[in-house]
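B., you asked whether I could sanity-check this one before it goes into the benchmark set. Here's the sequence:
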Amino acid sequence: MITGYAQGGRIEDARRLFDDLSERDVAAWNAMISGYTQNGRIDDARKLFDSMPERNVVSWTAMIAGYAKYERIEDARRLFDCMPKRNVVSWTAIISGYAKIGRIEDARQLFNRMPVKDEFTCSAMVAGYAQAGRIEDACQVFDNMPKHNVVVSTAMIAGYAQNGRIEDAVRVFNLMPERNAVSWNAMISGYAQNGFYEDALKHFSHMQRAAVKADQATFTIVLSICGSLAILELGKEFHGFAIKRGAVSDLSVGNALITMYAKCGNIAQAREVFDKLGKMDVVSWNSMIAGYAQHGYGKEALALSEHMKQLGIEPDGITLVSVLTACNHTGLVDKGRHYFYSMINDNSLMPRAEHYACMVDLLGRFGHLDEAEDFVNKMPVEPNAAVWGALLGACGTHGNIQLGERAAEHLFKLQPENPATYVAMSNIYASSGRWGDASRMRKMMRKMGVKKQPGYSWIEVNNKVHTFIKGDTFHPQAEKIYAVLEQLTEQMKEAGYVPDTDFVSHDIEEDQNEHILCCPS
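And here's what the prediction gave me:
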């Protein structure tokens, strides 16, 4: 009963039941300690641990695992070093704790000392090395194992995928004698992480044909893919599938549904899912606020963020990004300033580079270029490429050559192979009639071997994704598409539309520029 209450989040009821016990054995003490750690009450767990009349290896391990979970690794290590007796779970808990926070050498030292290793310990080391980008070390641990079970093979798949080695991930997956839902999820997620969305969805189909039951994590992954590709109809199908499987009650699935519908442009459906969530966390609120912000519903996004604070839910860094995006899309510069500084001061948020980039974009987009530059110069951390890129973009919008040159100078140092900087400066120069400087930018690109990748877009028709690049002629229905575009262009001109060619390439004729603006991309 104590464990049941704790797992349901009713930790006070669990404690009352514990206190009412006339006799408490070590199992009851351990259940209560684990309940506290599961519910984030690590200090209460320690008080109970210290008052135990008798402890066993489970008691010690529960406390070590709790400390490790909340990244209090020094506290975990002190307890581990004091343990009178250790088992494989104790060793794995402390090794996993070190690996989780990136202290992989400390994890390795303990791993080498460990008398008997099991698949969970090896999985922790593989995951730790992969997270640190040391995939060859992860391979060494994996290859030195006498046999590979589903746990360690899944860790290796995830490790390869995290480091962009998707073919190696597929090889390990194909060699597995048995697979569970976690293995399939790792492979589907791996494809998605590396941009192979269609392969990820095909792998989901293979999973179904293999009669492996999709779990909450599976639905979270595939719904995220549908959102990334803006495949609304397929997303709806997965929503229905999740309902049949009883997965929609899971909070992570609910959050994924909100994001999917929002990214697909169906804000009303996203809000309906949000309102029906029985339990919400900060991710739920962030997902809905971000959805409103991305589609220009700035007032709704800000109202929701205010409601969130009124309910006592602490906003985080992602909330601030979404709120600033909302202000940006609706021109609320003063509101943006207010939210930026109030969230930092009132909520003790430590702003990161993306927050500064949002503020620079907001100020610059609406013509406050001097304030934007001053904001960048007074940043307590070194501005990154996103910050300077936001400032350069604003210079392009408002034709500020001098400030644009200063921003570009930093970008050339930070990302010399990024074509966007050269293209932006070339367009800024050309818009001001400085053709020689515009030509110099293009020559610099050629000298550096930098090439601009063509933009592309996609639409979904009858559950099939059609991808287009700028000026595409390879689509089987290209002739029909261009014929319709020509008709639409004529109708737009008759209605008074005049193409703005200022920011299309300036080394081609005006009529070609107009044609480019009307091409699919």
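One thing to flag: Strands lie at 456-461, 464-469. Otherwise nothing jumped out at me.
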